[in-house]
Predict the structure.
Amino acid sequence: MKTTVRTVGQISVVDLSGKITIGEGDVVLRDKVHELLEAGHKKILLNLEKVSYMDSAGIGELVACFKRAREKGGTVKLLRPSGKVEDLLQLTKLWEVFEIFAEEQPALASY
Amino acid sequence: MAAATTVRLVLSSEVRLVDIVHAASEHMAGLAGFGEDDALNLGIAVREAVINAIRHGNRMDASRKVDVLLRARPTSITARVRDQGMGFDASTTPDPTSEANLLQTSGRGILLIRAFVDVVDFKYREGRGMEVTLTKKRNRRTKGAPRSTGAATDNGGIQQ
């Protein structure tokens, strides 16, 4: 999985592409969010538009990022999950946990 | 496709090998005539069964093997995943969708398996490890619908 980070005002938008799976994508996601939080960037928007799927480890890492940010007074929100990723968020009921947005502007305005 | 086509993979307990099994499962589903979404669903379910076998069955001991048998038939595809661990009771695993467990960072693998295939059978083989058999039938909607377990009778013809 690949990540690029854009900074929009005080918000870090992390564009993810690939799959968030055990031993690879989950580690990349963990490291990137950790790096942002340690650098004091507490408003994080994960753009999932180009994520093809996740496994249970990847889903677990999304939850871990959510909790880690909250512990540090920050927020992790999700942008544009689609296809299988949306299915997985619904199935696991994490759709009810995360703030999820279909468009970037409303997501940015929500912080 | 012939009446039954089989592929067998035996891997050491390393998570970096999970992608190989996932890819083989999706490819077999494609050969059997499954659509892309169903093939991905099968791939994810088999992936989760293999992750469980590596992590919880073989406890990440690379010297222990995970044995995967994929069998495609005209109307279904079956994956049998065996580990060399001590087994577990799938019926007692906590529900990861209950409010108390939503923020757990693990424990969703069996939920995904049940959702993405039609039949799941968990069986402990005394002294030989856990065996999980997944069956996905063609032309049936499985997305997002948790399945019952432990009462499977259709195992796709895989020898017990």
